[in-house]
Amino acid sequence: MSAEKKVQSKDELRLKLDINNVFAEMIGEEHGMTVEELEEAKDRALTAHRNILEEEAEGKMGFMELPHNQREIVKELKETAEELKDKFDNFVVLGIGGSALGNIAVQTAINDPHYNLFEEARNGYPRLFVSDNVDPEGIKALLDKLDPKKTLFNVISKSGSTAETMSQFLLARKFVADAVGEDKVGEHFIATTSKDSGYLIEIAEREDMKKFFIPDNVGGRFSVLTPVGLLSAAMTGVDIEKLLEGAAYMDQICREADFWENPALVNGLIQYLAYKKGKVMSVMMPYSDRLRDVADWYRQLWAESLGKEVDRQGNTVNVGPTPIKALGATDQHSQAQLYMEGPFDKIITFLEVENFAEELEIPGAYEDLDGLGYLGGHSFAELINTEKWATELALNKRNRMNQTVKVPEVNEFTLGQLFYFFEFQTAVTGELLNINTFNQPGVELGKNYTYGIFGRDGYQTKKEEFDNSAEHKDDLIL
């Protein structure tokens, strides 16, 4: 049942970007691009590329440093995992957004789909839970299943004031303290936070917690390759050195100044031009269960980075493509109808796995039934990729813009490439949109209202704005 071919060299494991289906030759002149359009816009992309490299030299592109400057951190992370994995049965991440989505994506991609359910799937490592919401039922259900004496919590917050994360921390702290005593609380927590400021570093010092630090120049949605994502990966047996090797390999490609030799640069421009052509929705559709949560991670990366009210000069622009998650082949039966016949407002990015770890043959039976007998003798790996190719062709026939990122096989090296590829692509598209790709003022406003409503000092005006906001009319609540 296992696939026979195992590609191993770095070049064999290189991601490939197939952009044939964005061009008019495949999808028609009305909705397709031309190579000439890209050539005409190429200089803008190359300027964006130079700007990114210049900003990196000034220390403003922290995500680009991560594949190269964490040797000692990786060593400490691996040592920590080795020391603690036998002491705890459960490892619980308390985080939200960029402090959770990358962790989940790594776990889904690399470890057994039933990792938490079966001891043999964990190979001596603890179960992993990522608690990324403040739904009281979900939190209570998780804590009810955990033995506090055998549970290690990783609290992730750069500021230490993230309401969702820190409220869960306060509950988890009581959960642990009630079981082991106040003096041993710190042994059950690891803080991942800012090194020099914030409430969490102060708490970690008070409680004598183990600490890992988030670089100041790396935002949450770009932090999967920092201790934010690497600690939970190491605690579940993921080869974090290979993750960073993959990112470093893609970084080398992304530094290429030859436009057509730099797929992330090319695609950053394609995404920008597609947006300008009215393709304002960006669908990511992996044909792989292992990569399904990469699409969740991508949604935050794309939305928070590119959805902006103003440009760098302060002009109101209200830009940003809307990211959408789909899963092949599942969503052929839920979303594909819209993609085929709905508005021409989407660009679809498929993730295609070329070599699955398991082929899994479909048994032959009922050969006398035309609608069933044809399946026997083929494999599920063949079937899922055939369905992808069929969907791709159907989209082309409907003049729908699509492209494919080909993943030779899913492993730490290729996953590291994927993360870095989309991060760099995002930086390019942000440059072309002339926006600040790395802030999120819209998120901050909602946070500030929450602080005010809950009575946090310094946010009284937000509480007043809430109290004075228009009341909802009863007759409009149906």
TrEMBL record:
Known PANTHER family for this protein? GLUCOSE-6-PHOSPHATE ISOMERASE
Q: Output the Pfam families linked to this UniProt entry.
A: PGI (PF00342)
What EC number(s) are associated with this protein in UniProt?
A: 5.3.1.9
**Role of this protein:** Catalyzes the reversible isomerization of glucose-6-phosphate to fructose-6-phosphate.
Q: Which Gene Ontology BP terms does the record give?
A: gluconeogenesis; glucose 6-phosphate metabolic process; glycolytic process
**Which residues act catalytically here?**
304, 333, 447
Record key words, sorted: Coiled coil, Cytoplasm, Gluconeogenesis, Glycolysis, Isomerase
Task: Name the chemical reaction catalysed here.
Answer: alpha-D-glucose 6-phosphate = beta-D-fructose 6-phosphate
Pathway(s) per entry: Carbohydrate biosynthesis; gluconeogenesis; Carbohydrate degradation; glycolysis; D-glyceraldehyde 3-phosphate and glycerone phosphate from D-glucose: step 2/4
**Family that this chain belongs to:** Belongs to the GPI family.
One Gene Ontology cellular component annotation held by this UniProt entry: cytosol
Location comes to: Cytoplasm
Q: Name one GO molecular function term.
A: carbohydrate derivative binding
This chain belongs to which protein, by name? Glucose-6-phosphate isomerase
**Coiled-coil region:** 35-94
